[in-house]
Amino acid sequence: MSDCIFCKIAAGDVPSKKIYEDDDVFAFHDIRPIAPVHFMIIPKRHVASLAECGPEHQDVLGRIMLLVPRLAAEHGLEQGFKVGVNTGPAGGQEVFHLHVHVFGHPARA
Ligand code: AMP
Ligand code: ZN
After folding, report:
1. Are 27 and 42 in contact (CB under 8 A)?
2. What is the domain extent for residue 62?
3. Is position 90 within any domain?
4. What would the pLDDT profile of 83-104 be if each residue is shown by its tens digit?
5. Which residues of the chain have pLDDT under 70?
6. Which of 17, 34, 11, 23 has the alpha carbon at shortest distance from 97?
7. Does 101 participate in catalysis according to the annotation?
8. Distance in Å, CA 47 to ligand 2 centroid
9. 81: burial class by Cβ within 10 Å (0-12, 13-18, 19+)?
10. Which strands make up the sheet holding 18-21, listed edge to edge?
11. Phi, psi angle pair for 61, to nearest 5°
12. Partner of 98 at 20 to 30 A CA spacing, among 6, 16, 62, 76?
């Protein structure tokens, strides 16, 4: 999707604060964090939302979900975190490239 901001971020064409990347998945800090730690995990291949996913997305969705606790722990959220997937206009979705929000407060050292 040539006009999709998250496709451009995943391709490295728009700068982001990247925290993880592999062949199929990209993760970066949210530009307007709602918690001290707030990042998003996205599939590199464009899909507009969770509601647009089909069986062909099962693998990447599973890998994104397994990345959630790993990246959360790497950012100090080993005591817990929240996960959100805003879906559709009535779900508060603003960017129509599927993204999984992960946010929380790091445990005190
Ligand atoms: P939503 O679609 O409601 O889940 O929200 C989209 C999220 O993407 C918001 O939390 C924005 O702060 C975030 N966002 C939008 N543009 C960028 C960007 N260029 N870099 C990082 N985060 C972004
Ligand atoms: Zn996209």
Report:
1. yes
2. 5-104
3. yes
4. 999 999 999 999 999 999 999 9
5. 1, 109
6. 11
7. no
8. 6
9. buried
10. 18-21, 25-29, 37-43, 100-104, 82-84
11. -65, -40
12. 76
**76 part of a folded domain:** yes
- State which of 82, 94, 99, 101 you would mutate to test the pocket of ligand 1, scoring each by most atoms of that ligand within 8 A of its C-beta: 94
Q: Is the CB of 87 under 6 A from ligand 1?
A: no
Place of tokens 């464009």: 46
Token pair of 50 as six digits: 């969770």
Token readout for 105 is 């407060």
Residues facing 102 on adjacent strands:
39, 83
> What single letter denotes the amino acid at residue 51?
A
Cβ–ligand 1 contact at 92 (below 6 Å): yes
What CATH number does the domain containing 18 carry?
3.30.428.10
Number of folded domains that form the chain = 1
